[in-house]
Amino acid sequence: MTSRLAWYVRRAARMSPAEVGWRVRDHALQAAWSSRQVRREEIAAGLPVSSGERRFTAVLPPHTDKLVPGKAKTALLEAADRLLRGEWEVLGAVRTDMLLPDWFYDPVTGRRAPADRYAFRINHRCQAQTGNVKQVWELSRLQHLTLLATAWYLSREEVYARRVADHLRSWSRENPFLSGVHWTSGIEIGIRLISLTWIRRLLDEWPAVTDHFENDELTVRQIRWHQQYLSAFRSRGSSANNHVIAEAAGQLVASCAFPWFAESDRWQRSSARLLERELVRNTFPSGIDRELATDYQCFVAELGLLAAVEAEAAARPLSVAAWQRLCAMVDSGAALLDERLRPPRQGDSDEGRALLLDAPALNRWPWLLALGAAVFGRLDWWPLTSADAGSSIIGAMLGARRDVAGRPVQRPWRFADAGTTLLHTRGGREPEIWCRCDGGPHGYLSIAAHAHADALSVEVRYAGIDVLADPGTYCYHGEPEWRSYFRSTIAHNTIELDGQGQSSEGGPFLWLRHATTREIDVQDIGDAAEWTAEHDGYLALHPPSRHRRTVRLDRASRIIDIFDEIRGGRHHVRLAFHLGPDVDAEIDGERAMLRWPYASVSCAARLELPQSLRWSLHRGETGPILGWYSSGLGRRVPAFTLLGQGRSAPDEPLVTRLEFLDTGSTTERSLYAPVISRYASAALARGRPAASWRPDG
User: Fold this and answer.
1) Which residue ranges form the domains of the chain, and what is each CATH number?
2) What is the DSSP letter of 593?
């Protein structure tokens, strides 16, 4: 109880007086609404039937199913068939109970979240009460049902529609208004409304669909309850990040598609205004998301595009400014992708998606680019993507593409408003060297909920392979030591001083002190590109100091140099370089040899490390945590970390050089044969397939 009270005190300190007032108002309204809770026994007894004719008119154009490419259709039906067999992966956990799931069960902890308690009396942040609430919430976004509904739409196989109907009936009966954990978060309610809308749309030609929507009093009540909740309770102030976008988008989609209620017109107008305002607030003019969490940029862009398309189809179009900002989000994302269509791994990621109409994929950016191409048209410099079910269907619903003026004619590499700079080689026959430099704000709003303490960090990839890697996120709830590690300074490719992070955390989604970063010089002279920035996260130390970093990519020699300066005095330094899971490492003094022989494009690199530091190699350690990589929530694997420790000295920069080596040439194979041989031995010791290993990769 004491720790919980301390958290509330820290959290309140990050609120403005106006936000405190809104919070007090919300708590009073939540208490008053306890009388409006609907219990399961009331559902079982039957609801009174309301009057009024209801028709669903927000249908897809005829023959839209014929536009879906065959490859996308095959992949989707395979995923749908696995789901019919009861198998579904949820945030790294494979569930096998999907014939008719327990909507409150967490497969990670084995706990059940409250199902009958008044929603606003449930502390969803407490794992002892709810289990891992992300696991519980994720299934009730009902996105597995949009997948099955798409499978029906493309195949007309009755079994898919029947399974959708069974799950919808089960969910609605077990989750009446304000009962249980699924009524505790507005973002979940907004996403669920999008799912319900698309389920109804995709099943429009199924003969029994009206029995499960327009003519089913409980379904109609659920659609109204969801919108009543969102109109009364929304994320405000320091919480108005991607959550408020999901809430506004969900209400706008539902109020356009289900205009069956006396409040529908008002809900449509208010949600459209809210969405337009918050899209601008949540993103920089360049299109980069202000949370500086790249996967949330994809998520917010999806939400905004779905809402904009829905409003357009309902003859309630969003403003030109909203369409321009959505287009900028897609264009800036396209610019940041590497040659394998992988985005930066900056900040938090929870695999959030607004809608699922294709076989699930961990990387949503190719889907967003395909959708962007359908909505706005593809620019010449965009990476190539293929149309899929989602982009084909949503594009058909929109009809004509939206023309947006002022789109970039060349691939941008610097986004000054967000402090994001991409140094990269420019195509050709050589694999791409891709280097992202972080010189932007710590995060968005006073709590910076999804930020990491990663100022001046770098990510480096070779042909899309993580070489110097951002380790990712791994978890949100229930494992506080892992949550703290993956968002800490030492978990990123940057410098920690005196054992202190650049920014200080106050909880799993709360930062109390934010490092401020400024870019000093950024230039590209053709053969080379260079970036310099510094941050003030160590001014509270004694003596106060700043960290300044310069990164230089020499395209001709394929070398990256990193210069680190600690300006202001002597401190204990820890400099970390985290390697991707495909990269093996061997260290000898101040030199490390890196090789990734099992990746799709094999290569080797030499890392010359600052000589004034003592260097050690770590992998998969837990005391303390060090040497880990997470590809997504609930997933982590050991990976090498190079850690240098020592004392900083004024006017003595720490110099690191990363040189990529062509292991395909006879000379290089001969020169590094002894090292490569040791890699083979190390690989055998870790159980990798020795028979498939070759010195040339």
Assistant:
1) 65-398 (1.50.10.100), 414-661 (2.70.98.70)
2) E
